[in-house]
Design brief:
Layout (H helix, E strand, L loop, with lengths): L27 H11 L3 H14 L4 H13 L3 H11 L5 H19 L5 H21 L4 H29 L3 H20 L8 H14 L5
Helix pairs in contact: 1-2, 2-3, 3-4, 3-5, 4-5, 5-6, 6-7, 7-8, 8-9
Length: 219
């Protein structure tokens, strides 16, 4: 089993998960599900793993794999539900992997947030989930990376909200200029790491327009 190493630069958080091997389960269906998953046929893999999980109701590894397939199919709501179930596993290794994958899923769900409060709340939830993963396995560098990543994103959003508050409330033109410009820089940073998604493009454009108005032209 392999995990993707922490992504460099501004590419963002992990998008591939560990898929647990099920070689001890006889029959063609598990093998077919694995083949579908590895070839990118996530919807088919999800269907097969879900059927297997209905038969082997005490095997949370199947639920975990169904969660992986749901994530691959970008069905993040279902993936969250499935990984949440696996976090109750008595197998601490499986539980840790479920928290890790649940954190990744919650991070993807954050991208649908409609406002900054939603972004902040969603990222705080993901950070708490990654913290559980790190607590269960302090050697998991990927979980530690994602924990630091999401915590930093939360702090950026808090700074953005404070900059916006000061820009709107301060009577001093120079202070307003500084804070609007700072807000633009933070929004651009969040966009680069794929947190502030498409629905924030208009908001960012408005910030840039305001920044251009309040910033004096240089000679």
């Amino acid at each position: 089993r392999e995990k993707r190493s922490p992504l460099s630069g501004v590419a963002g958080i992990f998008v591939l998960f560990t898929l647990l091997g099920l070689s001890e389960i006889a029959g063609a269906s598990p093998a077919s599900a694995l083949r579908d998953y590895k070839s990118g046929n996530y919807t088919n893999a999800l269907t097969e793993f879900s059927k297997l999980a209905e038969v082997r109701t005490n095997d949370l590894r199947l639920v975990f794999n169904a969660g992986d397939a749901a994530y691959g199919a970008t069905n993040f709501d279902l993936a969250q539900k499935l990984f949440q179930q696996v976090t109750l596993s008595p197998d601490l290794k499986l539980q840790q992997k479920a928290f890790y994958n649940l954190g990744n899923t919650q991070f993807q769900q954050v991208k649908a947030a409609k406002d900054l409060d939603g972004l902040e709340k969603g990222l705080e939830t993901a950070a708490k989930t990654f913290e559980r993963a790190v607590t269960l396995d302090k050697t998991d560098a990927d979980a530690a990376f994602n924990l630091a990543f999401t915590k930093d994103a939360v702090e950026q959003i808090k700074r953005l909200k404070e900059a916006m508050r000061l820009a709107k409330s301060d009577a001093d033109a120079a202070v307003r200029q500084k804070n609007y410009h700072h807000a633009v820089e933070i929004m651009e940073s969040l966009a680069k790491i794929q947190i502030a998604a498409k629905q924030f493009e208009d908001f960012t454009k408005k910030l840039k327009d305001i920044d251009a108005i309040v910033t004096p032209h240089q000679p």
